[in-house]
Design a protein that fits this description.
By secondary structure, the chain is α/β, with parallel strands linked by helices. The chain has one domain: 3-Layer(aba) Sandwich (Rossmann fold), CATH 3.40.50.12280. It is built from six helices and seven strands. A five-stranded parallel beta sheet has the order 2-1-3-5-7, with helices on both faces. A two-stranded antiparallel ribbon has the order 4-6. Strand 1, helix 3 and strand 2 form a beta-alpha-beta unit. The longest helix has 12 residues. The N and C termini lie far apart (about 45 Å).
Length: about 190
């Protein structure tokens, strides 16, 4: 036990500071503090695997380790879309997951944010649109932020989540959710 405590004292704190929000990931521009003003509490995320290979999921799980310290930033994952503020969607949307994704989106209370994660979520990836795949996430539900990469690093995922917080949810002129089909290429 004493050996372990010495080792801990020798290493010190291993948590990195959070990255800054990456504005290049934002699909739409918006007001900075609107969402934070509405939420006024921890950001709750519901992850939806719409047909991914689980590469993105491994990077998402890494966000919960002590190095990235997601919970320390006031961001946590929840099991129900009814408790979520943000949907984190991975993979190209398979035909079998289309209805489930729509129901999850509808069950998430307003204001809701959507982050499409990975090349498959942003563009459909190598699967594209076919008899078994609906393609990118924005073909099914409105997307606020697209984080490309195969898979994106945990830091890049966190930058995308923070970018989503700094823009209001997608809406059209009549107040209905907007469908966004834009996707950004990977940066740096």
């Amino acid at each position: 036990m004493l050996k372990t405590l010495r080792h801990i004292a020798l290493i010190g704190i291993a948590t990195e500071p959070p990255p800054k929000a990456d504005d290049s990931l934002r699909i739409r521009d918006g007001l900075q503090d609107r969402i934070r003003g509405v939420l006024g509490r921890a950001l709750c995320i519901r992850h939806v695997d719409a047909g991914s290979c689980n590469g993105c999921e491994l990077e998402i799980h890494a966000l919960n380790n002590p190095l990235y310290n997601l919970e320390g930033l006031g961001i946590r994952f929840v099991a129900s879309p009814r408790h979520a503020d943000l949907l984190l969607v991975t993979g190209p949307v398979s035909k079998h997951m289309e209805i489930a994704l729509l129901r999850t989106y509808e069950a998430t209370p307003d204001p809701k944010l959507v982050v499409a994660l990975g090349d498959c979520g942003c563009t459909g990836g190598i699967f594209g649109e076919s008899y078994a795949s609906c393609g990118r996430v924005s073909n099914i539900i409105p997307v606020d932020v697209a984080v490309p990469g195969c898979p994106p690093s945990p830091t890049r995922i966190l930058e995308g989540i923070l970018a989503a917080l700094s823009c209001p949810p997608a809406k059209t002129a009549d107040g209905a959710p907007a469908r966004t089909n834009d996707s950004l290429p990977p940066t740096g």
